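@here heads up, posting the sequence + SMILES for the magnesium ion run so it's all in one place. Ping me if the SMILES looks off, I pulled it from an old spreadsheet.
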Amino acid sequence: MTPADSSHATPRFSPRSAEPRAGGAVHRRFVLDGSGLHVCEPAVDAVIDPALGRPTTNGSTNMNDDTSTEQLPTCWQDVTDALTSGIDRIILFGPPGTGKTFAGLHLGNLGAGAQRLICNEDMTAADVTGCWMPNGEGTWSWHDGAVVRAWRGNGLLGGRVVADEIDRASGDVLSLLLNMFDSRESATWRHPESGKVHKPRKGFSVIMTTNVENLRELPVALRDRFPVAIRIDQPHPDAVARLPFDLRGPAIAAADADPDRRVSIRAFFAFDQLRKKLGEERAARIVFGPRASDVLDALRVDRVA
Ligand SMILES: Nc1ncnc2c1ncn2[C@@H]1O[C@H](COP(=O)(O)OP(=O)(O)OP(=O)(O)O)[C@@H](O)[C@H]1O
Ligand SMILES: [Mg+2]
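bot reply: prediction finished. Complex structure tokens:
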């Protein structure tokens, strides 16, 4: 994807084509126009199934269905291929709202469950490994944290940890994660209640997500435990398919525009909801603020195209 040209004053979305394809499907691309806002060439190579009215590959809507990966955008194909090849430490990074967390919680083999760890400066080891809590009987019981729960998984196989916003974790927590996210051979943790030493069960996997673009901002040792890092530059097609057809191209194009012109798919979800009650103009003003006219222009251009 080419960086958008930010030197132009009046950015706009530019749907360029809606070409008929075999089987009555339509193939649309959104590209940068002269005024500069959105570069997305190609956009998600969406084949619109006339029966379903949504992007589809063999009609499947299931992220885990192998048959649905034929026409995935490259970044999502990479995630799928890495997971199906057994890679169990992956960083998903890039602009907000593209589906990194959703993928961590839903994509791949999740038979042993997924635990979410949302990192911030205030989190402690309690969130990661666990803590003692009063049990109402005048004593204290140990409550496992997210990573220990994922180590244990379903009792037979380890589960998944989705460590969100990993760049926000405090130094202490990052040090702890160096052990907890280490290889199965190296990682150990002693349960404070039983004194038993635990290891992650086979199948334990970690997906870390972050919006930082330069992964050197992450501690070197942590980064080194994650040999695969994939920049997610497009919303997942299944997320895009939740939008009505006219919003799909603009939502894809806006997801990875220049940071000051970027619009997350979450805003398009809200816009779609609001416009049903308030009409397009007002909904756009409320949701997109100063960018409202760009979005409305894009929708108008798309309708006449
Ligand atoms: N495959 C999908 N199918 C349906 N909805 C999806 C899918 N992926 C993402 N979404 C929806 O898109 C929105 C953004 O997804 P998500 O929170 O995973 O993005 P993110 O990349 O983690 O964003 P951030 O970087 O801000 O944390 C959510 O409302 C989510 O439910
Ligand atoms: Mg997220």
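MO: The first strand starts at residue 15 and ends at 20.
MO: One more: DSSP finds eleven helices and 13 strands in the chain.
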